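Sample entry was shown:
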Amino acid sequence: MRQFGIHAVIFLMISCRISAQSTGNRTIALTLPVVTLIDIEPTGTITLAYSAPADAGRPVTTPSANMTKWINYTSAIAPGGISKRITAAVNQVIPGVNVRIQASAASGAGGGTLGIPSAQITLTTTPQTIISGIGGAFTGNGAYNGHQLNISLTTNIYANLYARTNTPIVITYTITE
């Protein structure tokens, strides 16, 4: 019986020694830069063309809105930094014509603090906010990711309309704080 007790004590000493733990630590260096990237997908131009009426005395027909473009972005803000926004402006205003834009709510494969679209605006040569409140976020890449754009034309002053062919209007999108 005495031998059994000695073996039990030795067994417990070995067990305790085997199950003893130690800890360690290592320092890692983490770098995450401020990121501000924007893209319009798919690439290429869109065409919005008025058409002549079928009957005399009727107004020209306004083109249907174009909803083929999507805004994609990636954003990482500085510690304590403010949220980002996306603005849009045109290179020129066409007399008699309003160019309007509205971004939809974000959809697709993104994540984070995605932006909030503003109401439809009429574009001018002065940048105007179309999406605000962007934090650390990404929208996913390509069409059907991010914010779908609804771009349309309306007539503002009919007397100012003049015939034109393929007049380029460039919309400039900017992401900024």
Notes: DSSP finds one helix and eleven strands in the chain. The first strand starts at residue 35 and ends at 41. The chain has a mean pLDDT of 90.
